[in-house]
Design brief:
With 514 residues, this protein is of the alpha/beta class. It has 20 helices and 21 strands. It has two domains: 241 residues, 2-Layer Sandwich (Nucleotidyltransferase, domain 5); 223 residues, Nucleotidyltransferase, domain 5 (2-Layer Sandwich). It has a seven-stranded mixed beta sheet with strand order 17-18-16-15-19-20-21, with helices on both faces. It has a six-stranded mixed beta sheet with strand order 3-2-1-6-14-13, with helices on both faces. A hairpin with a 3-residue loop joins β15 and β16. α11 crosses α18, α14 crosses α16 and α16 packs across α17. The radius of gyration is 23 Å and the shape is globular.
Length: 514
């Protein structure tokens, strides 16, 4: 008879879907983590009342449904529910009043209300000083800029606290407010050197934007990843209908690497420190893992970001637009009644000549939702390139442009950090796109190890298990956690191939600057 195992529930929320998964820490034979999806539900920003919003209560209902199903599955096996952890996308937040009531749906980062706000900030605060404090890439949707856009809203006027999305979910689960560091570091309000809220930066912002003066008091205490925030409320456990006894066992909720990329990097099956990573989803985050931030002027000019990671690490990276452009293209075609699958389109794209047309995938032209094929056509016309006419040609253009952006970001990361890189680890849903994985190996000249798809969930579970003091992982460092996580994880290796003719990268990059 199988022995009871410790099970951890990972809640992984993305911009297009959410899922609840169980991670079982198997102790019989070779210790390993087994992942099982128990519930998946759609997510997406919707435009209401003039804003692009997240329907957060619907999202939370999905979380609760998944938790109930997971708890039932764990109980059915006779296993122990040993912990719960939440990871999500970054930068967005909910505002709560004095009675902790959410004042409105969180505004989605792709809402256009933050255009040119960073320019207004830099009129008052030197970009060099700003970067020296928070170490962040300037992106229009960083939380510090979103807050400026919200200063005159009635919701902000009534707000007494602010919680980022994973912290908000954790608060609803436990009744405890905390700001987990990996996600807090994406706000622009964290001092990247001290790993605390930057009073210096917020004071400077309040001098330029008077309403900003209330922000420091709205922020929750910062906690490092791996902190047990609190226990699941008895009311929630009772709502599962599992009996009164169940309410007496405190189920810990752990602040994992609550930015999904931070968890995904923990889940990388790296056997060496000399690796780069690409966390490939709606966004692609391309970078390296460091022990301290890079705050040089060259780093700032390259628009690199120093996001904070698990165990005191720094995620030195660039945000690349990712699969968003491809997802929006598919949505446009589906709305028009086209039913060809993405798998088929990628296969057709693989038969086409590479780099016929490329676009700057990071251009703000592609940030907001809309008709991406039309935007790509306009871009091609304006830069004197062939206009993609078929859907497969559009897909080929997007994948080529993504690979080119990956190469550009990786070369810069290597140059700015001084690291020597031996291999690229790709994780996330985007690794199912084999054309993109192979092309990434080709353009970088480095081996690509793709997998696991569920890197964020794996990292989430590993940090939970260590945080609750499970004997099998207690005291493990990151390398040891990764080694445990790599056992039994399916990966695929892509080696660089030589094409029929060398790729002229200078010519390709030149097209983007026309």
């Amino acid at each position: 008879m199988n022995q009871p195992q410790s099970s951890f529930v990972a809640i992984d929320l993305g911009a297009s879907s959410g899922r609840v998964m169980i991670g079982r820490l198997i102790e019989e034979g070779t210790q390993r983590i087994e992942l099982e999806e128990v519930y998946r539900f759609p997510n997406g920003a919707v435009r209401m009342q003039g804003r692009l919003q997240w329907e957060i209560e619907t999202l939370y209902d999905g979380v609760l449904t998944g938790l109930r199903l997971a708890a039932a599955r764990i109980a059915q096996r006779g296993d122990t529910l040993a912990g719960i952890g939440v990871d999500t996308w970054a930068v967005d937040y909910g505002l709560l009043d004095g009675s902790d009531t959410l004042l409105a749906n969180p505004t989605a980062y792709r809402d256009e209300r933050t255009k040119r706000i960073s320019d207004r900030v830099y009129e008052h605060i030197s970009p060099q000083i700003h970067y020296g404090l928070n170490g962040l890439q300037t992106l229009p949707f960083n939380t510090e800029f979103q807050l400026i856009a919200d200063l005159e809203s009635s919701e902000f006027a009534a707000a007494e606290s602010l919680l980022l999305i994973p912290d908000l979910i954790n608060f609803w689960l436990t009744g405890v407010k905390a700001a987990e560091i990996t996600n807090a570091s994406t706000t622009g309000l964290i001092d990247v050197t001290t790993r605390t809220w930057s009073t210096e930066l917020m004071e400077a912002l309040s001098e330029c934007f008077p309403g900003y003066g209330k922000v420091p008091a709205m922020l929750a205490p910062v906690v490092e990843a791996g902190t047990v925030i609190g226990a699941l409320t008895p009311e929630l456990v009772r709502s599962w209908g599992q009996g009164e006894d169940e309410t007496n066992s405190a189920i810990p909720v752990v602040a994992v690497g609550s930015h999904d990329t931070a968890s995904a990097i923990v889940g990388i099956p790296a056997s060496t420190k000399d690796f780069a990573y690409i966390s490939c989803g709606t966004w692609s985050l391309v970078g390296v893992e460091l022990g301290r931030p890079v705050l040089t002027e060259a780093s700032r000019e390259a628009n690199f970001t120093n996001e904070l990671g698990v165990d005191g690490t720094v995620r030195y990276l660039r945000n690349v637009m990712g699969l968003w452009v491809l997802q929006e293209s598919m949505r446009t075609w589906v709305d028009a009644g086209v039913t060809e699958s993405l798998v088929d389109l990628i296969h057709e794209a693989g038969q086409l000549t590479p780099f016929t047309t490329v676009v700057d995938i990071d251009s703000e032209l592609f940030l907001a939702p809309g008709d991406m094929p039309a935007r790509i056509a306009n871009y091609a016309e304006e830069t004197g390139q062939p206009v993609p006419r078929t859907q497969a040609e559009v897909v080929r253009c997007i994948i080529d442009s993504l690979a080119l952006a990956y190469r550009r970001a990786l070369l810069q990361a290597i140059d700015l950090s001084g690291l020597t890189i031996e291999v690229i680890h790709m994780v996330g849903g985007g690794i199912q796109n084999e054309l993109l994985c192979q092309l990434t190996a080709d353009v970088t000249g480095l081996a690509v190890i793709a997998g696991p798809i569920e890197g964020a969930v794996l990292g989430n579970v590993l940090v939970q298990a260590r945080a609750v003091g499970h004997a099998a992982v207690a005291g493990m460092n990151l390398e040891q956690l990764r080694e445990l996580g790599s056992r039994g994880v399916p990966v695929k290796r892509y080696l660089p191939t030589s094409g029929k003719r060398p790729i002229d990268f200078a010519e390709l990059e030149g097209r983007l600057s026309r």
